[in-house]
Design brief:
four-stranded antiparallel sheet; Butyryl-CoA Dehydrogenase, subunit A, domain 3; four-stranded mixed sheet; alpha+beta; Butyryl-CoA Dehydrogenase, subunit A, domain 2; 16% strand; Butyryl-Coa Dehydrogenase, subunit A, domain 1; 387 residues
């Protein structure tokens, strides 16, 4: 299998790396994170100008028509800058959902605006009992007149306050765990009955608890086929999970590089501490975890659009387990090898540490995906035995 990237893919990666290096430095990022909005529209427009927001938009709607591999490269290249802008939530997950599930009218309306950075759309799907997985849907939608009335709560919706509109999943019929009966509704910010309780997350990002109380939206606000949204949401989240692994890989690489440089330059007892064998062993273990995470990130990118649900979920859970373990091991080793300064706010390493910690617990933590992988593997073995 050829793991070399095309010239066009390398150019995309180089362009993003140059942007974050020259125009999105550590001090600027800290200022953006501390601002009232928690992100920068100017930076968002710059990302649109570079084509980053158009990666997952088809050419027919003004996009680049790329896919998971280009998304992986973009997330990996931008990761060390810790961008506060909603790349994952809007440019990857919501864009993929509109592209793959929306009807022609919705695609023609939303996708060009998403590619140009004119609109930010965020999926509001996860609920508290689901532990970051697609899980059951308790939020209810009731038909009323020429529309729907929504009641329920969505938990830890990243970038919700930055969104111009939310894509809210709600159950129209059936039990919370049923695959059928879920619809997806476009709910603009400012809609009566929609409220957000915003807060900062450990990695300096913004999230919100979304509450819907008698929130009315017209029937034309439904995205895709009513009652059939859950499988489409799960597919979009799997694309997002692959992109999250890619972001982790970019941070892991930067963390390993920074630690290796520190070991080469930090002097103790008249020599670089990197000459001490015990520290060399720890650095080697970090590199081993990094390369395992790289391999599984590539696997996730290649399998995240697999039409076979079981095979796709199994591969992505395996990737999230390996990447999650690498996030925890490498970040902890890096801080310990840097000593007390590794946790100071002035050092970017401490912010990478926090983001890696957040990634390990996002979209299902390591233990949750390990359990899902085991369950899917057991089901696969039973199917093979019955065949």
């Amino acid at each position: 299998m050829d793991f070399n990237f095309s010239q066009e893919q390398r150019q995309l990666q180089d362009t993003i790396e140059r942007f974050v290096r020259n125009d999105y430095g550590f001090d600027k990022r800290r200022a953006i994170a501390a601002s009232a909005d928690g992100y920068s529209r100017q930076a968002w427009n710059s990302l649109a100008d570079l084509g980053v927001l158009a990666i997952n938009v088809p050419e027919a709607q003004g996009g680049l028509g790329f896919g998971p591999v280009e998304t992986m490269l973009a997330m990996q290249a931008s990761a060390p800058a810790l961008p506060c802008e909603p790349l994952l939530s809007s440019a990857v997950i919501a864009t993929a959902l509109v592209r793959d599930f929306g009807d022609a009218a919705a695609r023609d309306e939303l996708l060009p605006a998403l590619a140009a950075g004119e609109r930010i759309v965020v999926l509001a799907h996860h609920e508290a009992p689901a532990r970051g997985m697609a899980g059951p849907v308790h939020t209810r939608a009731a038909v009323e007149g020429d529309g729907y009335v929504l009641d329920g709560r969505k938990a830890v919706v990243i970038d919700a306050a930055a969104a111009d509109e939310l894509l809210v999943s709600a159950r129209l019929s059936g039990a919370p765990e049923d695959a059928d009966g879920v619809l997806l509704l476009r709910v603009p910010r400012g809609t009566a009955g929609l409220s957000l309780r915003e807060y900062a997350t450990i990695d300096g990002r913004r999230a919100a608890e979304v509450e819907l109380r008698g929130c009315f939206v017209p029937a034309q606000a439904a995205l895709g086929t009513p009652g059939q949204a859950l499988p489409a949401i799960e597919r979009a989240l799997d694309i997002g999970l692959a992109a999250l692994c890619a972001e982790a890989l970019g941070l892991l690489q930067a963390t390993v590089d920074a630690t290796a440089e520190y070991l080469r330059t930090r002097q103790q007892f008249g020599q670089p501490i990197g000459r001490f064998q015990a520290l060399q062993h720890r650095a080697a273990d970090m590199l081993l975890h990094l390369e395992q995470a790289r391999s599984m990130t590539y696997l996730a990118a290649m399998r995240c659009t697999d039409p076979d649900d079981q095979s796709r979920r199994q591969a992505l859970s395996a990737a999230k387990v390996v990447v999650g373990q690498a996030c925890r091991f490498i970040s902890q080793q890096a801080v310990q090898l840097h000593g007390g300064m590794g946790m100071t706010d002035e050092l970017v390493l401490s912010h990478w540490f926090k983001r890696l910690l957040a990634i390990e617990t996002s979209m299902g933590d390591t233990d949750t995906h390990l359990q899902r992988f085991a369950a899917l593997s057991q089901r696969e073995a039973l199917q093979a035995a019955q065949a």
